[in-house]
Write a structure and sequence with these properties.
mainly beta; six-stranded antiparallel beta sheet; elongated; disordered N terminus
């Protein structure tokens, strides 16, 4: 019998806004997120990537675009965190290799199950000026050597959080440290947008053909 491995990858976008010492604010719809074809409004959920029929050894590659359509400049930072429980013996994220970049900057490279080790680290993606955009490239490959029947119907998830703070000054070198957190007491930070990109791996199945 011939075995056909099938996995369904769904990338879901959710956007949240957290006000911090609000003095003035731009329209939150001026920060938009999407891909080359579609963009969404803040607060909506959206399927950016829906791939059916990925076999072990295959990979998916796509981009996420963050546009600044406001009249202000922002500094953009990111971290990543794991959402799924990895206590199962046959944990699917152990078999998913992920490579995430923003331009020449590498955000993450390794097994998806190792992402949670970086949930308290922040990567400075630089300034995003008015009218500009940041392009995030995501490559995910399903291991073709060790995925077997035991992994059918397994699932896992992780997300990428973006922290956007309004810029009145140029970012200095200390802002590049992994310990960066939004400064709720500083007068330079008017508010912070948190853009949560949930990358959800759903439903690994094994289909047998006669």
């Amino acid at each position: 019998m011939k075995r056909l491995y099938k996995a369904l990858f769904i990338f879901i976008i959710a956007i949240y806004i957290i006000p911090i010492n609000i003095v003035t604010a731009i329209n939150k719809e001026n920060i938009v997120i999407g891909n080359e074809n579609d963009f969404i409004d803040n607060g909506d959920e959206f399927v950016l990537i829906d791939i059916d029929g990925l076999m072990p050894g295959d990979y998916i590659e796509d981009i996420v675009v963050i546009k600044n359509e406001s009249n202000k400049s922002f500094n953009l930072k990111a971290n990543i965190e794991e959402l799924a429980n990895n206590e199962e013996k046959y944990y699917l994220l152990d078999k998913l290799n992920v490579y995430i970049t923003c331009g020449d900057l590498e955000i993450f490279k390794g097994k998806a199950s190792d992402i949670d080790k970086f949930n308290k680290s922040y990567v400075n993606l630089g300034d995003i000026n008015k009218g500009e955009e940041k392009i995030l490239q995501v490559i995910a490959e399903l291991d073709g050597r060790s995925v077997s029947n035991e992994f059918q119907n397994k699932q896992g998830a992780f997300k990428i959080n973006f922290f956007i703070g309004e810029n009145y000054e140029k970012v200095n070198e200390s802002d590049k440290k992994p310990s960066w957190l939004p400064n709720t007491g500083g007068q330079n930070v008017i508010y912070v947008l948190i853009l949560a990109i949930g990358i959800v791996l759903v439903g690994y199945k094994l289909i047998k053909k006669r």
